[in-house]
Amino acid sequence: MAITFDIVAPTGARIHAPALDKVVLRRREALHDPGSEVAILAHHAPLLMQTQPCIARLTRGTTTREVAVEAGVLEVYRDHATLVET
């Protein structure tokens, strides 16, 4: 199974990456270790969290693509993750 990852910036859609195996981002939340990483996989439980500026890692098979992202809010629902940059 796969997950689709979208990044939406204030200026509009920035990245659409379908059929990923894993997305890794850094969280920005007081309840957790600041800067800890979260890996999002297919069938991930619903999630809403704040992220910090980081290099996101998008993995498909043996290929990993790195993308610079700004701080924002990540929503994960079913097999779709959307980062709304602020």
Short structural summary:
This protein is mainly beta. The chain has strands spanning 3-9, 12-20, 22-26, 37-41, 47-51, 54-60, 63-69, 72-77, 80-85.
Overview of the structural elements:
- By secondary structure, the protein is mainly β.
- The chain has one domain (3-85): F0F1 ATP synthase delta/epsilon subunit, N-terminal (ATP Synthase, domain 1).
- It is built from no helices and 9 strands.
- The strands form 2 sheets. Strands 2-1-9-8-5 form a 5-stranded mixed β-sheet, with no helix packed on it. A 4-stranded antiparallel β-sheet has the order 4-3-6-7, with no helix packed on it.
- The chain starts with a strand and ends with a strand.
Keywords:
globular, ATP Synthase, domain 1, 86 residues
Strand order of the largest sheet: 2-1-9-8-5
Number of strands: 9
Helix and strand string, N-terminal first? EEEEEEEEE
Strand content: over 45%
Gap between N and C termini: 30 Å
Question: How many separate helices?
Answer: 0
Q: Taking Cα atoms only, what radius of gyration do you get, to the nearest Å?
A: 12 Å
CATH second-level architecture: Sandwich
- Helical content band: under 10%
> What is the overall pLDDT average?
93
Furnish the topology, listing elements before pairings.
Layout (H helix, E strand, L loop, with lengths): L2 E7 L2 E9 L1 E5 L10 E5 L5 E5 L2 E7 L2 E7 L2 E6 L2 E6 L1
